């Protein structure tokens, strides 16, 4: 079996069968990661460039580790130490890199649609590692994979996505992915951080986080993205924490056990308290571990090694 697409630009472009194939492949790679020797030579003749125009820790390290585990040759690109700082355009950068016979590009960019633009201009497989406020498909896939691991299936599961929905590419990709897999979704947060007409995506909306927690099986808490907010959208971080933050007391007050997630980095004491993040409800570190297996699966499948 193979993916229905040459690139991974967004969840919107994937079928349910694509997602299930990625999960099945990730299961195999997770088994590899739990062996004493964690490497397989599946991509030893493949060259991958990590083209990051925006800061990243978890996603970048996860991709680099996935590539090394598969035996690929990797090139790491940072704009601060490249010709981009001298005014080189995205397309010229990409063409110069491709002239070095690169097979795949993992790209993060602060402009929405940049990976799509690149996919239309160069002959290499493009993986979107986050573009502006648009999508972050690999994060959504590892989130859904982590829920599947915890709850066996996503069909009919109630998922609450809480926090800064408006500026979050994670939120949009999660909505697309979870809907394709049969989950019900509620978004929760302050009215100023929830986009108008988001209900057109088939999600419920509430401005009461406690209400969302009482409804859901899984709560995915999102970071407040102050770097993307051009104008203040709430009075203070203290006020946000008081009215929209999630803490252990709230979780303990529920009449059921729920699963707690966060894509990272966590603003501890703002959207999520330390006692909640480190509680038995949390699968945040599982998400990080699963991120490597999911990204290994995506790299392997897009390289066409399973055909």
Structural overview:
This protein is α/β, with parallel strands linked by helices. It folds into two domains: 11-136 and 291-302, Aspartate/ornithine carbamoyltransferase (Rossmann fold), CATH 3.40.50; 137-287, 3-Layer(aba) Sandwich (Rossmann fold), CATH 3.40.50.1370. 37% of the residues lie in helices and 15% in strands. It has helices at residues 16-33, 58-69, 90-98, 114-119, 137-151, 169-180, 209-215, 237-244, 248-252, 274-277, 284-302, and strands spanning 47-52, 73-78, 104-109, 125-131, 158-162, 184-188, 204-206, 218-221, 259-261. The strands form two sheets. It has a five-stranded parallel sheet, with helices on both faces. Strands 2-1-3-4 form a four-stranded parallel sheet. Helix 4 links the parallel strand 3 (104-109) and strand 4 (125-131). The longest helix has 19 residues, at 284-302. The termini are close together. The mean pLDDT is 91.
Count all strands and give the number: 9
The number of distinct structural domains comes to 2
CATH homologous superfamily heading of the largest domain: Aspartate/ornithine carbamoyltransferase
Q: What does the main sheet amount to?
A: 5 strands, parallel
- CATH domain class name of the largest domain: Alpha Beta
Overall structural class, as computed from helix and strand content, comes to: alpha/beta
Shape-level CATH architecture of the largest domain: 3-Layer(aba) Sandwich
- Give the rounded overall mean pLDDT: 91
Series of secondary-structure elements, N-terminal to C-terminal: HEHEHEHEHEHEEHEHHEHH
Name the strands of the widest sheet in spatial order: 7-6-5-8-9
Radius of gyration from the CA trace?
19 Å
Quick one: overall form?
A: globular
Task: Give the amount of beta strand, in percent.
Answer: 5-15%
CATH topology of the largest domain: Rossmann fold
